[in-house]
Amino acid sequence: MFASKNGYKAIFFDLDGTLRHTVPLGADVYREKVAELGMPIDDEKNLEVSKWEHYYWASSPDLREDFKRFEGDDDAFYKNYALTRLAKMGATPEQAERFRPEIFKCFREEYTSENHVPPELFEILPNLRSNGYKLAVLSNRREAFDDTLKELRLFEFFDGVMAAGDVGSWKPDPKVFTPLLDQLDLSPNETLYIGDNYFADVVGARNAGLAPLLYDPRGVFPEADCARMTSFSELGNFL
After folding, report:
1. ω into residue 119 within 30 of 0, thus cis?
2. Domain boundaries along the sequence of the chain
């Protein structure tokens, strides 16, 4: 089932949004709260905002500029992010200023989330290992996340785990991929990279010479110019 027709010897995975999901998703809570405050967002606008959100957090120039601008002041950073996100959702400056405290209150006092792993992975990952693939996780997190993988009951399946913070660079910078490839004695062209963020994962993997596979269960990138799946049950079709 999982033999590779494309010569892949390894599969690297993104973490957040790929192996690990947050339920309910913060973006859904944002949309629901803004609707409660009198500004419902239609599906087309919500998709537009989702694409912007993926772009922003993919080490975009906007994100890097905001980090510099608000260095050491997390409150100011997230206030600016909230105002920008609300503007992308269609709020006027006056609405954004009015909605922002209510959004913050919701996330501080009402929002609770749980981690979720797509259940098919608990069958797919051991099958991939038994078929000889090297498996690894490469995330844009700043710090090591072994404990997170252990909590998710995923750690045992992987031969390598690396945070971009360990490298000092962030996807889509192709340099992020090199240390993990070297650690596992792999070349880029024999490695498949799976992630949910087109701007970080697909662009980054492609620039580094890995084969990208976009995992898009929410349909954020229906017209992506790359291999794309909406469920891990489709993975065998891309090997």
Report:
1. no
2. 10-22+116-238, 25-109
Of 11, 7, 211, 215, residue with least CA distance to 128:
11
The tokens describing 237, both together, are 């079709």
Instruction: Give residue-wise pLDDT tens across range 120-161.
Output: 999 999 999 999 999 999 999 999 999 999 999 999 999 999
| Per-residue pLDDT reduced to its tens digit, 81-130 | 999 999 999 999 999 999 999 999 999 899 999 999 999 999 999 999 99
CATH superfamily assigned to domain 10-22+116-238: HAD superfamily/HAD-like (3.40.50.1000)
With CA atoms as reference, report the closest residue to 199 among 220, 168, 177, 181.
220
pLDDT at 115: 96
For residue 216, give the nearest of 201, 237, 236 by alpha carbon: 201
Render 140-191 in DSSP notation, one character per residue: --SS--HHHHHHTT-GGG-SEEEEHHHHT--TTSGGGTHHHHHHTT--GGGE
What pTM was estimated for this model as a whole? 0.94
User: Do the beta carbons of residue 46 and residue 28 sit within 8 Å?
Assistant: no
> How far is Cα 184 from Cα 54, in angstroms, rounded to an integer?
29
Rounded CA-CA distance 197/54 in Å is: 6
Q: How many CB atoms lie within 10 A of CB 56?
A: 18
CA distances from 194 to 88, 99, 228 (A): 28, 36, 9
